[in-house]
Design goal:
The protein is mainly beta. Helix content is 14%, strand content 36%.
Length: 330
């Protein structure tokens, strides 16, 4: 029994150290999660717990009968629907540029510091994501929708500032028109579900970093490896940030205020009233597997071994409703 207690104590200590020590924020383009089939330059992406491929500049990622989630700048997630493809034109945090080739992509922007920039491109149009929010680009319809936030759209014919609840075509003259933000499809539901898992992972990571006593974040926050959830959690440097889906992202300095009834579904939104309620059951949503330390070169990222914490981890599951909330932190 004494040996068992010592072993458990070592495991917890090792896990806490890993939370504190392993972070990434060097560049955009890490393939964080794949459901179904996705291909990186025609090579099948095979999910392995703790191992994360990265999309290099000018490489393409496409989905078949599947979906994919990509980490851009800290706090910004790009999610692809089935039968979609993107090309990473620049992975620099100060100038992240992603070309949407086919299908649909939704971008959840939970932090938009001035020193980072994310731009979506479609044929002759560029879309700069200016503010915290939720954005969707449908290549097949040549359409941009801003559920929440603000973007600047540019074409040869001119420029347009597009705000919450507005959409525009990207094929002709740029004109803003209203759309019903209460309507959602499978991509929206899946993005909301993923956001809820990431909000839960954030709480665990922020608490572990706080308890480690060695946290020093960057001005724009970090991606912090969470061995219990098998994913990278976004941890703001200070304050609390709110997702457009309703989740909260706590920093190590504010997570002491965490309340399980508040941090998810208790955010702020100007368009949440009257929203339809969605629910989707999910299976295991762990990341990609057993690795040891960060790789160099073209192998992507490998999370450090947790010495017994990584095996057989199952994340989430059950029903996740469509959240109501958005807004910036306090």
């Amino acid at each position: 029994m004494r040996l068992l207690i010592l072993a458990l104590a070592f495991t917890v200590f090792a896990g806490s150290s890993l939370y504190a020590q392993y972070m990434i924020s060097a560049h955009s383009g890490v393939v964080h999660y794949v459901e179904g089939k996705a291909y990186l330059n025609d090579t099948l992406v095979e999910p392995k717990f703790g191992k994360f491929p990265e999309i290099k500049e000018n490489q393409e990622l496409r989905t078949g009968e599947g979906r994919a989630e990509i980490l851009l700048t800290p706090g910004v997630f790009l999610r692809m629907s089935e039968n979609s493809s993107i090309r990473m034109l620049s992975t620099r945090l100060t100038d992240t540029r992603v070309e949407i080739l086919t299908g649909s992509a939704m971008v959840e922007c939970d932090d938009a510091p001035k020193d980072n920039a994310v731009t979506l491109l479609y044929k002759g149009a560029s879309v700069l994501l200016v503010k915290h929010g939720l954005y969707r680009l449908d290549a097949n319809q040549a359409r941009l929708q801003v559920y929440d936030g603000e973007s600047i759209v540019k074409r040869e014919s001119g420029a347009l500032t597009l705000k919450s609840g507005k959409r525009t075509t990207l094929a002709g003259a740029l004109t803003a028109e209203n759309f019903d933000r209460r309507q959602g499809d499978e991509l929206y539901i899946w993005s909301s579900q993923r956001s809820s898992y990431l909000a839960k992972a954030n709480v665990a990571s922020a608490m572990a970093l706080r308890d480690s006593g060695s946290y020093s974040g960057t001005p724009s926050g970090n991606w912090s490896w969470n061995p219990m959830f098998g994913m990278f959690a976004f941890v703001p440097s200070t304050g609390t940030l709110y997702s457009s889906f309703g989740g909260s992202f706590w920093s190590p300095y504010t997570v002491g205020d965490y309340n399980s009834g508040y941090y998810y579904g208790g955010g702020r939104s100007s368009y949440s009233k009257g929203m339809s309620s969605y629910a989707a059951s999910s299976g295991s949503q762990v990341g990609f597997a057993n690795g040891a330390g960060r790789t160099s070169g073209g192998g992507g990222y490998s999370a450090p071994s947790t010495g017994g914490m990584s095996g057989g981890v199952r994340v989430g599951g059950g029903a996740v409703g469509r959240g109501a909330g958005a807004g910036r932190g306090r």
